[in-house]
Structures are given as structure tokens and as C-alpha cells.
Amino acid sequence: MVLPFFGKKPVPGTRPAGDAGGSPAPDAAPLPAAELSSPDLTDHAPDALAQYADLVEVREVGAGIGAVYEEAAVLYANGNVPAAEAVLDSPSNHAREGVWMMLLDLYRLTGQRQRFETRVLDYATRFERSPPPWLDLSAVPARERPHPRPLVTLSGSLSGQAAAQFEQIAVIGKKSGTIRIDLGHLRSVDENGCAMFRQLLKELAAERVTVSLLKCARLADMLVGQVHPGCAEGRDGWLLLLEMLQHTGEQDRFEQLAVDYAITFEESPPSWEPKAEQEAQSTAALEAVAAAKEGFSLDGEVTGAAAESMRKLAAYAAERQRVEVDCVGLRRMDFVSAGMLFNTLADMKTQGKQVILKNVNAMVAALLRVMSVDQVAQVTLRA
To answer: Which of 94, 64, 62 minimizes the C-alpha distance to 102?
Structure first.
């Protein structure tokens, strides 16, 4: 559900609907505009946070977010957990389900299970509905990230002098189970290098290591000048060239060279295997899995100058029209960081992007409502 316990703020200087009679309330003095796009908080973050907190308009009007929600949200954003708890746990606020949801989430965020268990019974009795389950959100474990496939580059001469590099490639490939080898920087190749490279590829294949050879055309072009039909020399160079043609997908050249190989060495050549297509499918599958596992998230406590996090979010959203930000691991966000988030998401909205902040805890969600982030993105609460 999308922030079910928050309504819209009234326009400053107006009375709530249904408030008939009485003298009209004087217009509130306009608040000074807070520059949130590039705050200089490097050395004075606590003072700056307090200053911005004083600028929050806290007003209990109609179905609006109200002073209680705003005050608790800003206190928690500034790291004052006891004060935020005292505001939420005031007896005068016990009739509000939204306050209860924030209080229970505060207990989960601070690891107060005993208080949570005690108050959750009061919640169930008062509102006659199932309470949220206990989850210790005080120390959310780091989420597992997909490991990138190792990339090694062969450069210079592919010769016997590259033995140490081949050994290192074998170790990396066997350890990770997959490896990419870039051949685009090779300048020369000799028979010893061909023999050792072929042996490396056989060794990795025997260990079931997924090998992707990149820019094979570079090596193939060098080998073409070293094979001579009718001259039974440089057998490893022939075989390596045949393998490179399989990786580049050049079947016609492969078939012609295979005939020359059979005549020259009087033995059957390797069979055609479309390795280029297999690698493309394998790469696409791996990239699809990585894309599914990746995505953008906000984790831990986003405090102080959050410019780097906002830059990363903007970069992630650059090529996307639908931007989902997982906040399941986000425990707290301070006032200024929320302002920077608003500016970043506002820019995305002007570009026609749809932004969803999902799995937001109730305390952070209240702050986002204070900062009008819900006006530029969809905010959904976590269970």
C-alpha cells in the first residue's frame, strides 16, 4: 500500500474543510527557501540538520500528515530516537493507526523486540487487525552482489615468454568458474605461444570453466600469414587459427582452411562448432541474470552529504524509464539527504521517468512525505 496513513498537506494560510465559525487564522509567515540541491554540509552537518529541521512546517490540520508525524519523522532523521519514541508513544496519539505503525517500525529499526511484543498486542486489540511481524531491522545484513566475470588482457607477444601469464589465467578461471580473455592487444604470435594457448584452453575446458575470447579476429589475422598449405609446419598455429574462426563465426573460411589442413597434415581437421553463437547466448544469459540481481538500492543510514549516492542513482536511471529503488535495507535518512533525494527524483520526473521507492520503513516514509518526495515518486511501505 502507498503511504495509507498520510494525507495531503493543506495550503498554508487556509483553514481545514468543515471548520466553520471562529475568526480566520492569520496567514503563516512564509518559510525561507532551503537550498537542497547542493548544500555545503561537509564540516557542519549536525548544525545544518538542526537548522533545516527548524524550517519544517508542523501543523495538524484535517487529514494532513500532522505535527505528530512530522515531528517524529524529523527527530528520527536527526538520530534522536528517544525523543521520536516519546512523541509517538504519547497517550494522546494512541487513537491514530499511522502513529502506531511508525512506533512499531521504530521498535523494529532499533531492535527493541520486548517493547514491540508488548505494544503489538495493544495494536491488535485496539484496531482489530493483524499487526506487522517482528523483524530485527537494526542491523540489516549486506545484500549479496553478483560477482563480475574476470577479464584478462593478453598483450604484446603470444610466445613462450607468456607462460607465467597463462598460469595466472588458469588460476583465475578455475577459481571463478568463468573468465574473459581479450586478444585485441596482441602484436605478434609464434608457434610456442600457440601451443601454450591451446593447452590453456584445453585445461580450462576440462575444468568446465566458461571461457569467452574477445576480439579473436586480431589473432586470426596474424595467424593467417603463418600457415601455408602444403607445408606441414606450425601445426598448433593451424589448429589455433581454426579455433579462432569458430569464435568469430566465419564458417566458410573455416571449411576452406579445414580442407587445406587435412591435405597438408594428412589427418582429419576439427569439426565446425559455432562457438561465437554459443558465447553470445551464454553472455546474454549471464547479463540477464546479472540485470535481474542488480538494480539500485539505498541501504543503511543515508546521512550527511549524500551527493555520491544521488549521482549513482542518477547514473543508474539514465538509461531507464522505470526506476525502482529498493529501500528494504534503508534504516534512516537525514533531513538534508531527503532534500537531495527530492531534487534528484524531481529531475527524473521532468524527464518522464517513473520512479518507485519500494520497501520503505514507516519512519523514513514519514520523512519523505514531509519533504514531498511522494509528489515526484511512488513510495510503498515494507511489510
So the answer is: 94
Tell whether 163 and 262 lie within a shared domain: yes
Distance from C-alpha of 103 to C-alpha of 83, rounded to nearest angstrom: 12
DSSP 8-state secondary structure symbol assigned to residue 150 = P
Residue 9 belongs to some domain of the structure: no
Greater pLDDT, 93 or 208: 208
Residue 354 pLDDT level (bands cut at 50, 70, 90):
very high
Query: How confident is the model over 85-103, as a mean pLDDT?
Result: 88
Element (H, E) at 151: strand 151-158
Confidence of residue 52 (pLDDT cuts 50, 70, 90): very low
What burial letters (b/e) apply to 188-218, b meaning 16+ CB within 10 Å?
ebbbebbbbbeebbeebeeeebbbbbebbeb
Q: Which range marks the domain in which residue 261 is found?
A: 151-287
Q: Which three cell numbers stand for residue 154?
A: 593478453
**Total structural domains in the chain?**
3
Same domain membership, residue 280 and residue 303: no
Same domain, residue pair 169 and 278: yes
